[in-house]
Structure formats: structure tokens, C-alpha cells
Design a protein that fits this description.
With 119 residues, this protein is mainly β. The chain contains one helix and eleven strands.
Length: 119
Amino acid sequence: MAHYAFLDNNNIVTEVIIGIDESDGDWETKYSKIRGQVCKRTSFNTQKGKHLKGGVPFRGNYAGVGYKYDQKLDAFIPPKPFESWILNKDSYCWDPPVPIPGSLVEYEWNENTISWKKR
């Protein structure tokens, strides 16, 4: 069993499916031909650039609808939460330009002031 993400013309994930394991052939290519849409394999066990079970991370993150596939990084990147946030190329996720002073329970991001605001 393997997971595959279908991409639109802007490399945005439109759907993620469970499919046939790549050990049985090149299913990225086969699914692409069947659907007429680019298909990329994704790892259910990869999040923030790490493999949850200690294996080799694959394509940065498990793909989700709305994620973007970055060809240069060969990684799935989640949607950018705020314009000011910066892509962390180790975790393949977005970091705020100012570190959070506490926890997300206590603070929320204010894009207008580019700062954290106490809840």
C-alpha cells in the first residue's frame, strides 16, 4: 500500500489516494496517464522533514489537499499561513519571522504588526 498525490497545473495537491506499492512498478507514471494529471508518491510517515518511524523522510511532508509540490526541493509544502512567514528548508514548513514567546494556546499571530499577540 502506498499513497499518491495528484497535482493541478500549479503543482497544488487536489487529491491524495491510497494506491499500489511502487515495488510493483512505476505507479506515479501509471496513475498520471490514467488521470491525465501529474501524480507524485507521498509518505504517510513523513512530517516536517522527519520520518516518524526513524526511516528515511520522503518528500518533506505527507501531502494534503492544498499543499504545493516544490520540484526543486522534491517536497510537499503546506499552505503558507501568513504572507510574512518564511519557508524552513529543514522542516519543509513555514516559520514566523519572530519566534513565538510562549505557546500557541497563549499567543496568536498578528500579520498587520508582524508580531505575536497575547490571547
